[in-house]
Request: fold
Amino acid sequence: MRCEELRGVLDDFLDGEVSAAARSEIAEHLEGCSECRREAEALRRLIAGAAALPRAIEPGADLWPAIAARITGDSAGRGWSPKAWRQLVLPLAAALALVVSGVVAVRSIGRDRQAAMPEGTGPVTAAAVGDPDVAVLSARYRQAREELRAVFAARRDRLSPATVKVVEENLAVIDRAVAQITTALATDPGNRELSRLLLATYENEVDLLRRAARLASEV
Amino acid sequence: MKKTLILVLVLVVAASAWAQESVDRRLAASKTGLVEIDNVAGSVTVAGWDSDEVWVTGTLGKGTERLEFSSAGDRTLIRVVLPRHAHDVDGSFLEVRVPKQSRLDIETVSADIEVDGVFGREDLQSVSGSIVVRGTPSELVAETVSGELGVDVGTDRVRLESVSGDIEVKRVTRELEAKTVSGGISARGESPASLNLETVSGRLRYEGGLANGARCEASTVSGEVELLLPKDVDAGFEISTFSGDIRSDFGVSVERSREHGHGREASFVRGSGSARVIVESFSGTVRIRGL
Reply:
């Protein structure tokens, strides 16, 4: 087994998802290849770290610098296999998902209205809950967005120009939407529908970037 | 001159045929196993059948290294392998028969995906290829970036996502979650229990009824939302938009400006208000029409 082949199946190996024969072949390779052994160890630590993430975490707070360092080549210029790369991106995506899951609760605020409204009632009364701290959540999304944009920028050359164009055009669509909603919020800061829409739009952007990063890691 | 042209044409066609490699291979497979298919360009067409075999036919494009086709335990792998740093590789066109209870995991880049008559869970992903699914998979998850998604399935749980590609669902059985950035979403259903449609700038359209207690949510920034519901629909409506219009055919004119701040809201109930319809828009027009 060659090094690059091994790195292609390393995450499956660490997850125990390879056949007994492949496991034996990989173990044999690792025994004789210090570079792949280091790779496996690093990946194992990363997976363990991702698994141990708390349920509420700011995206990439501790994880990102290490990931970014590796992306930018501080790992002695070693090439990363697609799967290893994906393994690096996924923890970040997982961290983002945790942020998003925290936001879901905020987005649902105001939707828990009376299930059955009397015929012809007036405007729905907002649920008796405090307003979400949209600014804090928006800042988290922006941070996550910047991190994922860095991932995308680092690997965009791996995607076809047509795909990059689609991603960029749609990021522009989202940016325009964010700008419009933000402007509207400035004139109507208490508008909770706008706040929810803003967070949903950020979520779309993060989701698009996450997908683009994943695609770039897989091709 | 004419004869020369014909001769050249024949040679070109023949050369093209020689460059392609035909595939016709079979392997025994688990009845309910996972079939994974990877193809970059061309197409992948999958159909379920009664045999306990996976059968691959088709052609590998010029420049393709090989077709990896293997089966181990519960998993069958079909992968079009390209040379490293491959350039100028033609698409491969695969037709695959799988045991009809199989689960599918298909990934392509620009290859189109078409699946029919497979009952296990289906995970389908393409970047720019279109995805068409028919039949009754136990669960369906499909994603594209710019490809179009067309779904006609009797599946309880369907989750679809695209960036710029349009999504069309011909029948929503129970739950549908569909999301795009700029692509449009169009769905029809009889009485689904859950609809969640979301876009940034695409157009959202749903036509059909709602189950008792159903929840229908549609969210857009600038796209238009159109819901065509039976005139006797039993649902409570909550519609809000910042700068778009709200138009309702139901004759319940309750639209009003927000009491505090900007925007418009409309809320009204038809029947006992069993189902809930929630629509949010920033600047897109919201239309509720009666069928």
DSSP finds one helix and 27 strands in chain B. The radius of gyration of chain B is 24 Å. Chain B has a mean pLDDT of 90. The first helix of chain B runs from residue 2 to 19.
